[in-house]
Description:
Blueprint: H1 10-19, H2 26-38, E1 42-45, H3 52-62, E2 67-71, H4 78-81, E3 83-85, H5 87-99, H6 105-112, E4 118-120, H7 122-127, E5 136-140, H8 147-159, E6 161-164, E7 168-171, E8 177-182, H9 190-194, E9 197-200, H10 206-216, H11 222-236, H12 246-258, H13 266-272, H14 280-285, H15 288-309
Parallel strand pairs: 1-8, 1-9, 2-5, 5-8
Antiparallel strand pairs: 3-4, 6-7
Helix pairs in contact: 1-2, 10-11, 10-12, 11-15, 13-15
Amino acid sequence: MPPSLLPDSVDAVVALLERYDYFADRRLATSVFLALKMRRPLFLEGEAGVGKTEIAKVLSNALSRSLVRLQCYEGLDTASAVYEWNYPRQMIEIRLTEAEGKVDRETLAANIFSEQFLIRRPILQALQPDDGVAPVLLIDELDRSDEPFEAYLLEVLAEYQVTIPELGAIKAASPPIVIITSNRTREIHDAIKRRCLYHWVDFPNAERELAIVRRKVPGADARLSREVVAFTQRLRAMDLFKSPGIAETLDWAEALVALDRMSLDPETVADTLGALLKYQDDIGAITPQIAAQLVAEASSEADKSAEARV
């Protein structure tokens, strides 16, 4: 499928994302629009599970472009992220040349360090896509990588190119759409942020979260969806080690649907909290009394929401 035209307004971005089940607020949609319009990388920070990675996936589908994903981790280097030489093939080429008895070292070196012996990793794949169409490059969880790798990215983000000593600079014919995410487990250097447009992705408000649940978990009863969102919104106001993100809200809603629940009750909440909270201290903090109180408040909120819709 040929790549789609880029949206020409913020409203068009909102509509485009919603068509692919992503409900962005106005500020986030504006950041996405500007990143596309200005051809600048978009740096997204926020808690885990709020939908940062999903933006890249949705843009890939919505714009009919391939998604090149670089998942960052401690110890990530250029050999895994950018390129490396195919050493076994190079050795075979050297031995074949020696067997022929024609060993010109300069010619041989130029030959084995040519592009046919180059293994392209995600960043180089994004700069030189096979189909010639600029892809969406997702550099996911940059905060998990080391600072030297951040420094290497500066050239990529500023010039959309990488420099390979044996070949020189390799520049993208058309810049990829770059989305960088961070869960802020550590601070990312200012030099990276200066090369990007920045947006903090926050937890959604109740209205937007309800729209997401209804779209993503269509099997959930309308009342159950309202109660799940109201309950989750109240959990985020508590002093928890890790507040549930949108991903956890959806997991919980799907778990409740699998149990054929039409509404919340304290016993069901206690049995299914592991779908919503991921740390034992947080689960232990939701005592039966607190669970009952939160269920009652969520039920009341769901009633008010239903009445407002009538």
